[in-house]
Amino acid sequence: MSEIRSVAVAGASGTLGPHVLQALIDAKFRVRVLTRSKKPGKYDAGVDVVEVDFTSVESLTTALNGIDAVVSTVGFTAIPTQTVLIDAAVAAGAQRFIPSDYGSVSFNPKLEAFPLYDQSFKIKHHLHEKAMAGQMSWTVLATGTFLEFLFAAGEAGLLDFASRKVTLLDEGDNRLSATSLATIGKAIAGILKKPEATKNRVVKISETIVTQNQLLRFAEAPRPGDKWEVSKVATSALLKEGLDELSAGDFSFPVSFKIIKGTGLAGEAYGSAYDETDNELLGVQELTEEELKKMVAERLA
Q1: What is the rounded distance in angstroms from the CA atom of residue 286 to the CA atom of residue 76?
Q2: Is the Cβ–Cβ distance between 147 and 177 less than 8 Å?
């Protein structure tokens, strides 16, 4: 496989996109940003920004001319439209496609027919077909949960540090892999630096494996006088509730979040902890226990 030198990024202004963009720039790739609307000053002067129609293979093919690899970091609602981007990447002669599929368990076949996961599987099948035809290779990067999500404010995170409340999922011992946004960006650059070793497979990275009870112990240790309010909920119950509400026509984020928590944070049920990873291949350093304790302490302030 030829060396990858030029990379196009779709979704560069989203949650993960800026970290991927910066990592690619730092790794000395020639970077082109695909955007619906060019806004002056939004990106560094050295970044090639091209306005495209993401629904048009023709528009995207033109924009991808001369590009070796395409990285998609589009948001959840745009995941199904990646087939158009993939077809354009093939037409333009790109070598590698990395889809927006950065999750914890989205590659688990148990979830293929589940809402929120079915579209990701369709994209993976589409990529597999292109690879089998010898048209392009792919890599799916499994990252575990975003580390920033685990430490998010309020009830969105694993612990509500401000209110000193925690709802333990199951008994609080579900093991969860997690990786920061910045490290994910660097791992993507690493994939493109090592295209042969990462060709046509799921690559797994994990900066840490944590449990809620572990984080709770870290939170209680420096402030033994603080009283934490602890409740429990079964991930299976969360999942059923979310699926039932979705079937009833409720497509709101809280409903989707129940499905995400009921699967991605369910521990061994869907494989949310990666005991075997590609950390060494991609230069991902695991966090120490002291570094985790420091992260917890910072949120107690």
Answers
A1: 27
A2: no
The pLDDT tens digits for 173-201 are 999 999 999 999 999 999 999 999 999 99
Instruction: Say yes or no to pLDDT of 33 above 90.
Output: yes
Helix axes 17-26 and 181-193, enclosed angle (nearest 10):
50
pLDDT digits (tens, 9 = 90+) for 251-290: 998 999 999 999 999 999 999 999 999 999 999 999 999 9
Q: What is the mean pLDDT of the chain?
A: 95
User: What span, in angstroms and rounded, lies between the C-alpha atoms of 256 and 247?
Assistant: 11
**What is the fold, at CATH topology level, of the domain defined by 146-177+207-273+285-300?**
UDP-galactose 4-epimerase; domain 1 (3.90.25)
Please name which of 8, 11, 148 lies closest in space to residue 76, comparing C-alpha atoms: 11
Instruction: Select from 259, 211, 241 the least CA-distant residue to 103.
Output: 259
CB 164 within 8 A of CB 226: yes
Rounded to whole angstroms, the Cα distance separating 214 from 166 reads 12
Read out DSSP for 143-193? --EEHHHHT-SGGGSSSBTTTTEEEEETTS---EEEE-HHHHHHHHHHHHH
Q: Delimit the domains of the chain by residue range.
A: 6-144+179-204, 146-177+207-273+285-300
Q: 229-254, pLDDT tens digit by residue?
A: 999 999 999 999 999 999 999 999 89
CA dist., res. 8 & res. 66, Å (int)? 10
6-144+179-204, CATH topology level: Rossmann fold (3.40.50)
